[in-house]
Amino acid sequence: MGRFRFKIGGKTVLLPDGQHDVGRFAECWLVLDDDLVSRTHARFHISAGSSEVEDLSSRNGTFVNGDRLQGRCTLRDGDRIRIGREVIEVLGLGTSLAGDEDDLRRTLAPGEDTRFPSMIGQLVEKSIKAGKVKEAERYALALASQLAAARVPVSHPAADACNRCLIQLADKTASGVWIDRLFRLYAQQAWIMAPRTLEEVRSSLDRIPRVPGTGLRDYEQALRNMDRAGTAVPAELVQSVAELADAFGGG
Fold first, then answer.
1. Would you call 249 helix, strand, or coil by DSSP?
2. Is residue 17 scored above 80 in pLDDT?
3. Cα-atom radius of gyration of the chain, to the nearest Å?
4. SS3 for 48?
5. What pLDDT does 167 receive?
6. Contact call for residues 45 and 97 (beta carbons, < 8 A)
7. What is the pLDDT of residue 114?
């Protein structure tokens, strides 16, 4: 996965590999409510080795460093892309993973505006509805990776978005891989799973015979460690997770 960063509206977001449309159309990656913006105005092309932007024959044009774009061009660190009234800045092409994680920690800090992590959750939902499962999986992995690089409370909007998209993918694909990833994230973050989330997991497991990996056992152990350390852990949650691990857990 490419590690390209874009600054939009004062926040930094990492884009996974693939194509990402910008415009007024609700299905776009970045939806801009701007009368200067076409329904599908521009497209970012992200791959492991490059980042490009393409103008999609928009009425008012896409501008890179003040010049109107004809077709598509390769982006470089520091480039500024103007689409309507929105300016998108390219940051840190080819920078280290550690630097990206620092930015993500700031983006996901408690109290911060979480427009972009939440946006990725919305993209997962849109991709699933459109039948683009591989695209949804790519976005979900990007969001889970963002959360893995940060420390946020379970009440954080990005955590809620990740909950929804991982469970939706489990429902759509009938694959326990996404449930395993969810529980590993909960174990890593030491989150208390809400009863509603647990019920959604149980509903997903109606169609999943097995959950590969150690996520369920990891979370069970994490809950017991938290309880011993003095965190108020509901006994029914520990029991429920242990039962799920017995019934569905891999190894």
1. strand
2. no
3. 20
4. coil
5. 93
6. no
7. 46
Residue 80: both structure tokens together: 């500024």
Whether residue 179 contacts residue 205, with contact meaning beta carbons closer than 8 Å, is answered with: yes
Count the neighbouring beta carbons within 10 Å of the beta carbon of residue 82.
Answer: 19
Strands (E), the chain: 4-8, 11-15, 18-23, 30-31, 42-46, 51-55, 62-64, 67-68, 72-74, 80-83, 86-91
165 within 8 A of 121, measured Cβ to Cβ:
yes
Structure token digits, residue 101: 């994680």
Alpha-carbon span 237 to 226, nearest angstrom: 12
Q: What pTM was computed for the model?
A: 0.59
- Strands 11-15, 30-31: pairing is unpaired
Evaluate if residue 5 carries a pLDDT over 50.
Answer: yes
Residue 55: φ, ψ to 5°: -85, 130
Token duo for residue 6: 């874009």
Cα–Cα distance between 145 and 92 in angstroms, integer? 18
Asked if the model's pLDDT at residue 161 lies above 70, the reply is: yes
* Averaged pLDDT of the chain: 83
User: DSSP assignment of 79-119, as one string?
Assistant: -EEEETTEEEEEE-TT--HHHHHHHHHHHTSTTS--HHHHH
Q: For the segment 114-139, what is each residue's pLDDT rounded down to a tens digit?
A: 455 566 777 787 788 888 888 788 77
